[in-house]
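[Q] Does anyone have a clean structure-token version of this?
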Amino acid sequence: MRPQSYFSLSQSTSFESDAQGHSVSSNSQSPTSRGKERSRSYIAWNREMDSLFAYVLYDQIVLGNKSDGEWKPQAYKAVVDALNAKLGLNLVISNVKNRMKASKRHYVVITNILTRTKFKWDDDKKMLVIIVDDIVKCDEYVKTFPKAHGHQNKVIENRDDIVIFCGSDKATGESAKKFQDVV
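[A] Here you go.
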């Protein structure tokens, strides 16, 4: 059974809704070296999109389309095809890769916080909880590691999915076995 996944990140503050109520915005970037302007779409991921994203990626893991912490191109294509078919979107592979990059950024920041500090993850609240007594320590940590800013007391509903999707496939520690030992 797949866990529920809800993780919402927006890359833009100005969105228009498409026919299905999904937020999409176009933002013109500065001209390229040839003088042509490029348009780039920003996608505001919602719970339904993230849930389907996770559902398909779990299938891709079973199919062997993730190894050594990297996703194979067919995994990204499967996610794009599923999101477009089920939700009537017009996503491309770069949209899914950007979503994965955002998830990896959260994974790295939270993993670093948990390994470098005494702060704990609260599975019930789905957040890194910083108690009042630790606010000064948290502020010091954020000064040293600015990317950690904003992650304290931030709800991340699908952290379990993020750990599976963004973590390494390699076992470490005393229980780790080499492939040859398993066969």
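[Q] Thanks! Anything notable?
[A] Residues 88 and 146 are 38 Å apart (CA to CA).
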